[in-house]
Amino acid sequence: MRTKPSIPEHIEDHRDRHWRREGARQVDTAVEAERFVEQVGFTAALTDSRKPGPSLYVAVCGRRDAVMPRNVQKDPEASATWLLKDDIVKRGKVYYGKMARGRTMFLAPRMIPHFHAVWGMKKAEEPRRLSPPAQAILKVLRREWEMATGDLRADSGVTDRAAFTKAIDELQAAMIVVPSEVLYLPKFTYIWTLAVGRFPEGLRQRIKREVAVREIARCFLAGAGLTVPGELARVTGLSRAEAGRGHHALVAEGFATRCAPGTYRLGAPVA
Q1: pTM, rounded to two decimals
Q2: In angstroms, rounded to a whole number, what is the distance separating the alpha carbons of residues 223 and 218?
Q3: What CATH class is the domain 121-174+176-204?
């Protein structure tokens, strides 16, 4: 079995501070959660200490060894994180969606152009790259702008639940559609809207892909202090080769130091 790379304790301390894995800095409110997202640049929503990278759930717990229980409905920390997620989605201050390879993430506004440069899609590419169900859903949303799941399924003709979910995930991964609200009454549903309507500045910027990859790598390394082989790829969905090119660019400008194949640390001493 492949052993998990060990992280030096001073790097774990660095991550504790930057990723809010300390009781004194844990996240309690939507405003604090938005500040956390802005500080880290991008973060998972509901992963725990078994997954690499920052996580809102871990920040709510305020400890580095937080593990999501099997029965999340009865766990106060999981419930608090879920409710915070809903509140953040409704407030619309930071980007939220199911990104590449099914990763549900929050993005700070400053990171939206960089993620879009890697995973976004030009309108001219949509007929070739989007599935017919995704195109049908998108056509309705561009006409209505915002719609609940049930109404969107009916109007788009994508009535099969599994096909609809797959198409919505496809549109989220391309950063075209995002949830704008979560409703529980009279029944549970998401309200879907066009991402460009909420984040027009970030999604209309044009950035070269290699620049975007470098800045995603910079953002992660700043919070992580050190990154081990494959870590950035697992967190973001980048290929390991492209993640490596991002790190190499940081080494070239003196922001990072290569310690070993696939292992990079901040160029300056970790604070």
Answers
A1: 0.93
A2: 9
A3: mainly alpha
